[in-house]
Amino acid sequence: MIDNQPTDEIDRRTAISLLAAVVAGGVILSNSSAQATEPLPENDESLQPGKFPAKPGNYLAGELVTTDAINRRGGLRLDGDFNDDRYDKAQPHDFAMLPYGMIYYHGAPAELRDIPLGTHLHGSFYLPPKGEENTIPPTKGPPQYGSKFNHAILLEDDFSFFQRRGQAWEVVEVNREKARMKVATSGKSAGAEFEAEQTFWIDDATRVWMGKSSAVWTELAAGQVVQLNLTWSPEWRNRQFRTSDVWIDEESRAVATERQRQIHVRYQKHHWLAGWVDHVEHLGGSKGIVTITLFGSVDSSLLEEVKSKKAHGNAVAAAEATLRTYWQDHDHKGGSIVEWKTLDKPPAGSSGIQILWQTGELLDGFRPGRIVRLRCYDWPNIKLPPEERLH
Q: Where are the alpha helices (DSSP H) in 272-326?
């Protein structure tokens, strides 16, 4: 029986976060076969500022090899395709997160800064939005080994990817002498693109988690249902992976998810919730009502806190596509939420929450299509370090 994510853990994500996550369910190759299933048609949708994508993105997966966490950018070593020349010459696939791009790690919302280099990630990517064509320079390697889809709406580690799809792995055999672990699909079928059995490298460097503490990999045994994270191995080009982490039981998985959720909550309270401006209604002078849609990949407890305390007033700061703000402790305005809306069937990237926020002074950064960040009245109002601010 699969160890599905507990209901209360699922409830901690907004409904749209789960909806948006399904866009990453594309093609994946088996590490034991050179055959791939038929890939989904490429989506060449041209993204428009101030609008969420209308169609699912393009699936790519690989090892995280570079990050610029402050600007939400990075690079993936794309999964091997049994082509030694590609493995030898292809440059990392550089990408930028869309402003509403969502990241999950250990089953909870995350930032790029939370994900260690070497983590294998699954993602959903689009062409650059209009006006952002030069954000990510063209690949320096052979063009046939690159991808034009370099703006991500979703990134998630193996733990999050498989757990969200209802799939786990049952241990079939652990061979310490050969440093290999054979596993088989357990639980809900994740789709025809996954082979029923996989074999991964495993050794003393693999982190094994059981209960609330770490274990040793000799405690892995046939019949256990696990989740795992993968990383690079010397046979990467042939789709062979090394196991970086294994979670043996439900408790260890719940502990990992809750720890990451708490990291996410702390980060958001210091940096505030991101969204964009849909509409501005001028009330005379510098007063106005700003309609804001909050982005997805936000723990539902944060949204509930803002809603429950909306009568106490809020602050909104102008931001850029990287979600960086200016002098956040000065370049924002106070106001109050006058209406709270829950959107029906919101698009991927949206939290499904839209607010009407009234302020006595409109900033230039509050124009339709611009990015903003919302602070609950009693969250920290601090000056971020200079490298995190725009000047």
A: 300-308
Strands (E), the chain: 58-68, 73-78, 93-105, 108-109, 120-126, 151-157, 167-175, 180-187, 197-201, 207-210, 213-215, 225-231, 242-247, 273-284, 287-295, 314-319, 332-342, 350-359, 371-376
Residue 29: CB atoms within 10 Å: 20
- Taking the model in full, what pTM does it have? 0.88
Cβ atoms < 10 Å from Cβ of 89 = 12
How many CB atoms within 10 Å of residue 205? 12
pLDDT digits (tens), the chain, 391 positions: 333 333 333 333 333 333 333 333 333 333 333 333 345 678 999 898 899 999 999 999 999 999 999 999 999 999 999 999 999 999 999 999 999 999 999 999 999 999 999 999 999 999 999 889 999 988 888 888 989 999 999 999 999 999 998 999 999 999 999 999 999 998 765 554 457 789 999 999 999 999 999 998 889 999 999 999 999 999 999 999 999 999 999 999 999 999 999 999 999 999 999 999 999 999 999 999 999 999 999 999 999 999 999 989 899 999 999 999 986 555 789 999 999 999 999 999 999 999 999 999 999 999 999 999 999 999 998 888 989 988 7
Beta bridge partners, 319, equal: 325, 371
Domain residue ranges in the chain = 7-259, 272-388
Torsion on CA atoms 26, 32, 38, 41, rounded to nearest 10? 40
Query: What are the structure tokens assigned to 256, written together?
Result: 């990992």
Q: What is the rounded CA–CA span in Å between residue 211 and residue 222?
A: 18
CATH, domain 272-388, list 2.140.10.10, 2.60.120.260, 3.40.190.290, 2.40.10.190? 2.40.10.190
